[in-house]
Design goal:
Elements lengths: L3 H9 L4 E2 L4 H4 L12 E3 L4 H14 L2 E5 L17 E5 L6 E5 L4 E5 L4 H10 L2 E2 L12 H7 L6 H4 L6 E8 L4 E4 L13 H4 L7 E9 L1 E2 L3 E9 L2 H15 L3 E8 H10 L13 E9 L3 H17 L5 E4 L3 H12 L1 H8 L2 E2 L3 E2 L5 H15 L4 E7 L4 E7 L6 H5 L2 H14 L18 H4 L2 H14 L14
Parallel strand pairs: 2-4, 3-4
Antiparallel strand pairs: 1-2, 5-6, 6-10, 7-11, 8-9, 8-10, 12-14, 12-15, 13-14, 13-18, 16-19, 17-19, 18-19
Helix pairs in contact: 1-3, 8-10, 9-12, 13-15
The chain binds flavin-adenine dinucleotide, D-malate (MLT) and zinc ion.
Length: about 475
């Protein structure tokens, strides 16, 4: 067997093969998983990624692709065998082409999402993928997880935003699918195999992404109401009034808003009194601000008149809009600061969200009196982060020990409603075992056959996505 470290250093340069101070690469964002990689390698380009993958294969070492390491499921965290190589894509951060006429940009996988949003804006275009981790997650990681975020309602998941891909396969071959085409029916659309595959089938090194016209006008509001059913009615009313101009609709329980106010005291003042539920919503378009404001405000007035909402705050400036959005964006961080919580990232049909909440809450309260559900998420997509914080008085380890039981309570209802136990975060090593419970044997068998065909030695991010 070739000496991996010697050869990797010769290939990448000694400073790009790290064997000490690896904590930032070896632990996940939530601090739930940590591993002990043999090394962290930082290739500079696709050719180096391909050579490194060949070297890993020759040495019989498995590898873990890593982007911004913001996975919620330990997807980019190596195991503790000391035999895995983390391949960090951070140095693949070049923009290869931006074409406002074709409405596309071709970028390397390690580009930070927020930088791509800014780049699109500089060219008077919109790249609509938007999520709380956008300042550190990478487009390669977004594609590998088929990330969702807050604008799926209007623009779709990451899968809908990708036109082409370049992928290094498990044997080190480079699959170049970097086409900027809107139409191409020439056989199986191979790029889709790698989108959402969490690095288990290949390493994404570049992508062609869709751009959209830059919005000229934007309206943001924060509304308060009594029941999730009213949120659904508001969603219908706003979409009816605004059509495609309605881009985001995010639900928050009062408990999750209060948690943000507790941990982020600079959060904006909201309403004079408590309300059980809130949404932050956004509309945007390419027309005049006054026309958008008028349609948005008329729709909200109608919601107030019909008693669908109790109260509403309209952002009167970009600063205020950002502050209102931060209440939503800071929930994950506030939950981290608050300690252990059992996280769910579920989807049910949008119309079933109220029934889902009504069914699960009493089951949880009966099993764990005093439990603190923190419910928020992308209601417009039927995707809730149904997180469950420990009852007051219960220790963190005792609460963590209840994870499987809490999961069964929540996820069995999801399954009965034909839902998904992981809507946008993927499976990683946190939820892969739930495949066996909630996917059919045929689905798992087909996935294993694909995995074996593309990665027969099982070297690409083993222990993630598929059940062990
Ligand atoms: P990593 O965490 O580094 O990796 C994620 C997975 O992709 C791993 O399996 C890894 O092996 C694989 N991978 C990474 N790069 C590549 C590559 N180039 N080729 C092949 N495989 C690769 N997610 C949402 O969907 N919606 C949200 O609203 C959202 N909000 C978030 C808010 C916060 C505060 C945080 C911390 C996370 C949030 N996430 C959200 C989760 C996370 O940001 C996304 O999953 C994101 O897409 C991961 O990108 P990353 O670059 O950090 O990937
Ligand atoms: C979000 O929507 O804020 C994220 O997906 C992260 C989370 O689950 O908290
Ligand atoms: Zn989310």
């Amino acid at each position: 067997m070739p000496d991996f470290l010697t050869q990797a250093r010769a290939l990448l340069g000694p400073s790009h093969v790290l064997t000490t101070e690896l904590a930032a690469y070896a632990t996940d964002w939530r601090g739930k998983f940590s591993g002990a990689p043999l090394a962290v390698c930082r290739p500079a380009d696709t050719a180096q990624v391909a050579a490194l993958v060949k070297l890993c294969a020759a040495c019989g070492l498995s590898l873990v692709p890593q982007g911004g390491n913001t996975s919620m499921c330990g997807g980019a965290t190596p195991d503790d065998s000391g035999q895995q190589v983390v391949i960090s894509l951070s140095r693949l951060n070049r923009v290869l082409e931006i074409s406002p006429l074709n409405n596309t940009m071709t970028v390397e996988a390690g580009c930070i999402l927020q930088n791509l949003q800014h780049l699109a804006a500089e060219h008077d275009r919109l790249f609509p993928l938007s999520l709380g981790a956008e300042g550190s997650c990478q487009i390669g990681g977004n594609i590998a997880t088929n990330a969702g975020g807050v604008q799926v309602l209007r623009y779709g998941n990451t899968r809908d935003l990708v036109l082409g891909l370049e992928v290094v396969l498990a044997d080190g071959q480079v699959l170049n699918l970097l086409k900027a085409l809107r139409k191409d029916n020439t056989g199986y659309d191979l790029k889709h195999l790698f989108i959402g595959a969490e690095g288990t089938l290949g390493i994404i090194t570049a992508a062609v992404l869709k751009l959209f016209p830059a919005p000229r006008a934007k309206a943001v509001a924060f509304a308060a109401f009594q029941t999730p059913q009213q949120a659904l009615e508001l969603l219908g009313l706003m979409r009816g009034a605004m059509g495609d101009r309605f881009t985001a609709f995010e639900l928050m329980s009062d408990a999750s808003v209060k948690l943000v106010q507790q941990y982020f005291p600079a959060s904006p003042a909201l309403f004079g009194q408590s309300h059980p539920w809130h949404v932050v919503m956004q509309a945007s378009d390419g027309g005049a601000q006054a026309a958008l404001d008028q349609a948005f405000e008329t729709a909200l007035e109608s919601a107030l008149e019909r008693g669908i909402i109790d109260d509403v705050l309209l952002a009167s400036s970009e600063t205020q809009a950002r502050e209102l959005w931060m209440v939503r964006e800071n929930i994950s961080e506030a939950q981290q600061l608050d300690g252990a919580n059992i996280k769910h990232d579920i989807a049910v049909p949008v119309s079933s969200v109220p029934a889902f909440i009504d069914e699960v809450l009493p089951l949880l309260q009966a099993a764990y009196p005093g439990v603190r559900p923190m419910i928020y998420g992308h209601l417009g997509d039927g995707n809730l982060h149904f997180n469950v914080s420990r009852p007051a008085g219960m220790s963190t380890p005792d609460w963590q020990a209840e994870t499987d039981r809490v999961n069964v309570i929540v996820l069995d209802v999801v399954a009965r409603m034909q839902g998904s136990f992981s809507a946008e975060h993927g499976l990683g090593q946190l939820k892969n075992h739930e495949m066996a419970l909630y996917k059919t044997p045929l689905e798992i068998d087909l996935m294993r056959r694909l995995k074996n065909a593309l990665d027969p030695k099982g070297l690409m991010n083993p222990g993630k996505l598929l059940p062990n």
